[in-house]
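Dear colleagues,

As part of the handover before I leave the project, I'm documenting each prediction I ran so the next person doesn't have to rerun anything. This entry is a single chain, and its sequence is reproduced below.
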Amino acid sequence: MNSTTTALPTISKALSAGTTITWAGTAFLLGQTVFQPLYGRMSDILGRKPVLLVSVGCIFIGDLLSGWAQNALWLYITRAVSGIGAGGISSLVAIIVSDLVSLKDRGKYQGMVSIAIGLGALVGPFITGSLVQGNEDRWRWVFWVPSILAFVCAIVLVFLLPLKPVVGSWREKASKIDWYGVLASVTGIVLLLIPINSGGSIWSWHSALVIALLTLGSVSLVIFIFNEGLLAKIPLMPLRLFKQRSLTIMLVSGALHDYVWQATQYFMPLYFQEIRGFSALESATLILPYVLSQSIAGAISGPLMSQFSRYAPVLRTGFLLWTIGTGLHLLFSRHTHVAIYVVVLAIEGAGVGFVHQPGLVAVQALSKTQDRAVATSTRNLLRSLGSVFGVAISTAVQNAAIKLSLRDAIPSDLLSEVLEGSWSSGDASTEKYRSRILDAKMQGFRVVFIILVPIMCLCSIGNFFVADTALKGDAQRQNQERLKPLPSRALEVSGPTGNLEKVDSEV
């Protein structure tokens, strides 16, 4: 994900994508988001290992085909396939770790996962920068490298990850899937995100197509919620998750802070390359403090939670640092000193590291044992939605700000080139407009940065209303849950091997 963002300017030129190049990121996030509600419940029904292997297979196929892309549409479709795989991996890794490790020790192992994520985020941009530096035709390897790695991972998983089969025939398993929920959620998410990403750039916000897609998408999501609450026997997203104040705050915060997270990861490389004129490799170097501090903080957060048997102190520290770092983005300009980038991005990255994995532990601690998988996939769904909206809305806001600043300042044909992304600061024929255009672009970035600040403030304040549940061993926790009164109707829960069992309230 990080490596692709670094290469977007190069890929856009190679495929003549113009402003639609944002779909390289949005299509990935769209695929990741659309199927996110399925992973938790599907892994309960079909088993963890098969779903994870299919997800890794999507990464392999999607990135392999992305590397062969001959036009922008081809790239966007194959990036969506990769996104489907990425969503499954993020959910299934977290779910499998929760299966293997007790709640008390989960923070430590999630910290190890954070190190792995940080390592990928760290080396990805440098690999990309070295590939496209001086030879723009090698951008295809940006996708082929992760495809090769996915193939290796699949081989390792086949032989080393234990398979705990779920009893029952495929027909029985398929009958347990909430197909109406699948159809309604996929339809709603796709129909909403397409106009949100393309409104104001490809299509006018007032066009009949945009209004129709937004309306149909909203209706589909309402049907999905109605189905999950009243009709589905085994819902993809049990609405009882949102009956707890603390859990609801954590789920909503996940969407909000990933709006900020994805917008930052997407726009910072563009800012470095378009405003400051840095190369792709230099841009990757400047992102290093953000990624490195995120990885270190994520690794530290696990042992800290295990030591304190609490997640709230780590989470609150993370939100505070993240909010401060986001606010300091307002210092960025066309002439900012490199040292400021290092300090600001290091502070913000540390905040991200102290929030992401501890946030997952908090959601699982606040959920019942039988809801662990669906709570994890629900959190990832909302995070993915936040990421997609973060890129889409921020792109629309940036384009609107640039258009407003340059509307009467430069010729209309040049304005079109700027908005389409085809204008280059090295173009000698437009040299007299260069400073004005860069000022307008900087204004667009500044508006994006300003919007992120109140969102993080809201997350930081909301976290103080989250209960600080003690992290205990799973056996101790399950004993406590058995003492609580159960609802009158039977519950659908996941057994220790992933089998769906009916637990009658009288038992």
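The CA atoms of residues 389 and 477 lie 36 Å apart. Strands lie at 491-494, 500-503.

All the best with the project,
I.
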